[in-house]
TrEMBL record:
<keyword id="KW-0862">Zinc</keyword>
<dbReference type="GO" id="GO:0016137">
    <property type="term" value="P:glycoside metabolic process"/>
</dbReference>
<dbReference type="InterPro" id="IPR024078">
    <property type="entry name" value="LmbE-like_dom_sf"/>
</dbReference>
<protein>
    <recommendedName>
        <fullName>GlcNAc-PI de-N-acetylase</fullName>
    </recommendedName>
</protein>
<dbReference type="InterPro" id="IPR003737">
    <property type="entry name" value="GlcNAc_PI_deacetylase-related"/>
</dbReference>
<dbReference type="Pfam" id="PF02585">
    <property type="entry name" value="PIG-L"/>
</dbReference>
Amino acid sequence: MKIMTIYAHPADTITNCGGTLALHAQRDDEIVALILSHGGRIHANKYAEEWRKANPDGDVATAGLDDIVANKKDELDRAASILGIGKVITLDHDDTYATVHEDVVEEIAEQIAAEQPDVVIADHPRSPAWFDAHSVATGMALAALSRAGTYLRNLDGRDEVPVRQVFLTGLPVFNLDALSLNGLRNDCYIDITGVVGTKLAAMDQFVSQGYHGLFARKLVESYNGEAGRAAGVNFAEAFVRLYNETHGALPVTEAALAADPLTRHIAYSSVNLRGSYPVP
Ligand SMILES: [Zn+2]
């Protein structure tokens, strides 16, 4: 299977689905990460920390956009190789877009057509009225999927693009059932407990935006811990499937059949994250 992630910023891929990608890399699935913007204008944490010092390091405090972007690319490359992402494609747009751009849709469609992924992972677009960079990125990714879906061998001289499923991340709704909140919820959980140290090591690379060390552990404990609580495991990543799926019989997973509601609280609280994976 080939997976293509499409996210707005360099670190989004790791925080949203890094554990899931590490698991698929272990299965020898091919992974391509497409990142729309360079992230040079967001999360300037390392630089802001320096500005606040009495005697700031001049190189850090006066870093220009090229330096910041180059440093972030290094961080991304290291994180990608830790997770087993085989290929990183950065389109290097500025971080300021607030609407869908026709030319970026075309760029993404070209990358989808060239890579031919079976599965795409992107952020949940949440509200269409919220012109957040992540929502806009997914708007462009979905438009690009539609466009790539119109490529035909006889008209365009290239293969059609049969993406089988899109998994959407970042919806902070962890209901345990389909009836609460009118059915709005993540509907698919991946147990990342076995690779949580790999995800932390990847996040530890993003020093420039303060995603390393204590923050990485805080995010995984809280965000992946909450998804894990909904899933009955220590740490999970949560997804919403875009398309319906067809099964030969009712799809009740082994984990669902094995779940013990009375001891769940122990099963999903068995890892001391900071003890097992201390800040390096
Ligand atoms: Zn982001």
